[in-house]
Amino acid sequence: MTTSKYPKVVGYDLVQQIGGCGFSRVFRAVNVPEHRVAACKRKTIEKEMCIHTALKRNNILEFLNIVVVELKHQDHYVPGLYLLLELAAGGDLFDKIIPDIGMGDEVAHFYFNQVMAGMDYIHKEGVCHRDRKPQNFLLDVAGTLKISHFGLSSVFKLKDTGRTHTLMERCDSLPYVAPGLNSDQPYEAELIDVWGIGVILYTLLAGNTPWDEPTQHKIFQEQPWSRFSALIQGLLTTKPREQFTLEDTFQHPWCIWYLNQGAASLAQVLTQSLRTAGDLELVSTDLAQRNSNSSQTQSSMRYTPHLTRFYADLPPEHILPLIRADLAALGVTCRDAPSAEGALRLRIGRQDAWKEVFRGWVSLETFQYHEAQGCFCVMQKDSGNPISWRQLWWALIQSPRFGAHVLRKQGT
């Protein structure tokens, strides 16, 4: 019997796992002869595929193709549905947000309007998304927002007749659950998504969610709620008859601004809060001014969208015990993982303040630092809230035991 492997999907080789959750794994897929890159998701259920194939829009992650590997071929390939998708090379939108600070109003408006445009199209196609959490909003290489992950979505309207029906299934993720899901009664699909985008808007502006879980506590007159005033209150009211629709939201004065930015200038605006907070000093040190014989690792020269990374002045084998000890002190579960392409790796996970589990990898590679060996570290999230992941990254690099070894840019 041969070892099972992943198949080639319509000319694309699955070269690197870049994400996943309990029901799927996501790989970077490369078509070498055609010089093309995509993402490939291996699924064990068909519902997401059926809905995603029908959605074609600029703010929807594009569905490209599918390959089915049946159980009878399991001696040669890993069985499942392989969905070939557009590669969101810009990574998570919410990876660019400073926890508890958020982003500027102009950039938040720019991306919120794209969220609304994507959701408006989805609803007109008769689909309710029902899983509008931060990790499902991605960016392409030009900074365009892409809505992804349709595993919890459902059809609520027939396009040919316009006839709608209420939904019964209870799903969604804390703390994005709408009040309509807190009872056993049928609910209106569109209003569930509207509630979710209200939480997303709050998160863009405040850098956090308004609550850890559904609550009856009245906080609309408190800071920072009062800063956002009527728009968020209209989206997040618990009274269905008073809740904004998407059409109401489009007409709100705050949503009429327009930010006209090219890809390069947009990247500068999007990451301004990271520069202000000093985060970007840690993810890209000024190696060019160091010893002329020094060089980065092969992996750090390759594509990596993850801003939760840093350089350290000790080699991987010396840094790894420090990271393991500090993560354990932060309540993070760690276990050693097999090395990959010469990198030492840890598999880590924890439940965050929103009672959502996040999981990911810590990968450590060697690079030349002056005349000695240093370490290039990437913290890659597989699943969970990107804001929680960034909070963990920040706590690790600021820890007394390990933080002293983290390199900053020269001259800052």
UniProtKB/TrEMBL annotation:
GO molecular function: ATP binding; protein serine/threonine kinase activity
Pfam families in the record: Pkinase
Positions of the Protein kinase domain: 12-255
A cellular-component GO term for this protein: cytoplasm
Keywords noted in UniProt: ATP-binding, Kinase, Nucleotide-binding, Serine/threonine-protein kinase, Transferase
GO terms for biological process, alphabetical: intracellular signal transduction
EC number per UniProt: 2.7.11.1
InterPro entries listed in its UniProt record: Kinase-like_dom_sf, Prot_kinase_dom
Keyword DNA-binding listed: no
Recorded catalytic activity of this chain's protein: L-threonyl-[protein] + ATP = O-phospho-L-threonyl-[protein] + ADP + H(+); L-seryl-[protein] + ATP = O-phospho-L-seryl-[protein] + ADP + H(+)
Top-level enzyme category: transferase
Protein's name according to its UniProt entry: non-specific serine/threonine protein kinase
